[in-house]
Amino acid sequence: MSKKYIRAKEVAQYLGIGLSTVWLYAKQGKLHPKKISDRVTVFEVSELDALFNSEVEV
Questions:
Q1: Bridge pairing between strands 34-37 and 40-44
Q2: Which of 33, 12, 13 is nearest to 21 (CA)?
Q3: How far apart are CA 21 and CA 4, in angstroms?
Q4: 10-58: per-residue pLDDT in tens?
Q5: Rounded to an integer, what distance in angstroms lies between the CA atom of residue 30 and that of residue 37?
Q6: Sorting pLDDT into bands at 50, 70 and 90, what band is 1?
Q7: Can you tell me the distance from the alpha carbon of 19 to that of 32, in angstroms, rounded to the nearest whole number?
Q8: Structural domains of the chain, count
Q9: In the 8-state DSSP scheme, what is residue 35?
């Protein structure tokens, strides 16, 4: 993936999980969202890759 940051819906597609699971992982501290405005939150792709590659259980 060439983007550095992606939105929650793209994270769900990228990891093959549901959108609600993305927010659950953020709440649990597995993902660290970055709020860039009132209505826009993004996630760092390199962090997603590290999570996906390091953990067997996501």
A1: antiparallel
A2: 12
A3: 21
A4: 999 999 999 999 999 999 999 999 999 999 999 999 999 888 787 645 4
A5: 22
A6: low
A7: 15
A8: 1
A9: E
Sheet holding 40-44, edge to edge: 5-7, 40-44, 34-37
pLDDT for residue 56: 47
The two tokens of residue 21 are 């699971």
Give strand ranges (E) for the chain.
5-7, 34-37, 40-44
Domain that includes residue 21, residue range: 5-54
Tokens of 55: 């953990």
Concatenated DSSP letters for 2-39?
--SEEEHHHHHHHHT--HHHHHHHHHHTSS--EEEETT
pTM tops 0.90 = no
